[in-house]
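for the recovery benchmark. C-alpha cells below, seq after
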C-alpha cells in the first residue's frame, strides 16, 4: 500500500503541470500585497492549496469513470484539479486573485 502513494503524488503533480502549459497567457492583476500577506501566503495558504490540489487530483482520478459516464469529466477536472492548482501556482505571492503581475506577462508584438 505504501508503494502506491508516491505514484499517486507523481500522477497528481503531472496533471498539475499539464494543466498549466499555457500559464503565460494568464490574466493580468494589479495588486500590491503587504509583507504580512506574502508571509502568510507562503507559510500557510500555499501549502494548504497544494494539499487541496493533490487531494482533488486523487478524487478526480477515482471519480473519472463516473464523471465520464455522466458527461461532466471536463467540469470535474476544472473544479477538482485546475481551479486549486491555478490558485496555487498562477498567483503572485500574497495576492488574492489568480493571475500574474502585468510586468511578468510577455507582450506579443
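predicted aa per position
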Amino acid at each position: 500500500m505504501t508503494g502506491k502513494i508516491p505514484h499517486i503524488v507523481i500522477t497528481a503533480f503531472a496533471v498539475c503541470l499539464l494543466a498549466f502549459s499555457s500559464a503565460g497567457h494568464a490574466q493580468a492583476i494589479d495588486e500590491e500585497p503587504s509583507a504580512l500577506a506574502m508571509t502568510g501566503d507562503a507559510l500557510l495558504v500555499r501549502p494548504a492549496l497544494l494539499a487541496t490540489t493533490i487531494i482533488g487530483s486523487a478524487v478526480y482520478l477515482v471519480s473519472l469513470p463516473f464523471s465520464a459516464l455522466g458527461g461532466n469529466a471536463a467540469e470535474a477536472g476544472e473544479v477538482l484539479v485546475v481551479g486549486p492548482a491555478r490558485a496555487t501556482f498562477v498567483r503572485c505571492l500574497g495576492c488574492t486573485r489568480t493571475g500574474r503581475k502585468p510586468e511578468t506577462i510577455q507582450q506579443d508584438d
